[in-house]
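Student: Hello, beginner here. Can you help me understand the protein record under this note? Any guidance would be welcome.
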Amino acid sequence: MNAVTRVAAFGAGVAVAFGAAFGIGRVADLGVPGADRAADRTSATGAPNAAGHGHGGAVATSPAADHGAAASGDAAAEAVPGGLQVAQDGYRLVLDHPIAEPVDDGALSFRILGPDNQPLRSYTTTHDKDLHLILARRDLSGFAHLHPRLDHNGTWSVPTSLAPGSWRVFADFDPAGAVGPLTLGADLLVSGPLMPTPLPAPSSTAVVDGYTVTLDGRLTPGHDSRLTLSVSRDGTPVTDLQPYLAAYGHLVALRQGDLAYLHVHPDGAPGDGRTEPGPAIVFHATAPSDGTYRLYLDFKHDGVVRTAEFTVTAGQEAPAHGH
């Protein structure tokens, strides 16, 4: 990957994109570090070997589907994918500075306005966080999963450093006692020379920091797809993955073109008496349409959260190419 961009103290876990149900289990819709994770790193420049986090969602495949999961059947097919709207159900995402400078350790700040047009201050905690923030460069060459801090005025902020270009900001959250989990999205323009980066070719293998992650399974539009991601290091299967935000892995998918966003949690959970800590992490996801997707798998080992990235196709018979 490209150069790694560090973001002061990474804290992570991510939420939905194409749908709206947050919880460990199956997926919802398909579609940077916080101060509590000093050991984690964020890939804000698209660096393949940088640690990051990701969440997103697709059309829900079960009642326990992740964030933003829509109802199954025709209603799900007609639902607007998560992260494509700046406002929904009376809630709005407002960036304090939608045009920013590429300053190291600069602060990204924003507010969630409620139906009363006042900053929302009360949230329901999901996967150990009140809000999950995902940043993705429009050409999918940059990605970061952050956990900002909320001040007494209702403003969220997090230090970050982003490469020049057009970015999409996703806020995944659950207003306390309200409509349920939401994923809102807004555009952020980082000034400077734009250097577009082509999307890597489809592949079933990703390498990050000496770890090799292999993807088994295909996304099938409109149908539940079983995706198994297996982690190894130096040719040896990793069998002691560590829990990260209440799971052994978090999978985010972004659809090329509009960046419709999906977050999936794996089958099982740490400590449930049956889920093994690797090497395999099993997910179930439903792609909303044909197309090309970028997948981001967050996993934790030796105290560090890393992100493995894949390009995959849904509904297209294109052979995968290993790295």
In short: The longest helix spans residues 74-78. Helices lie at 74-78. The CA atoms of residues 113 and 119 lie 4 Å apart.
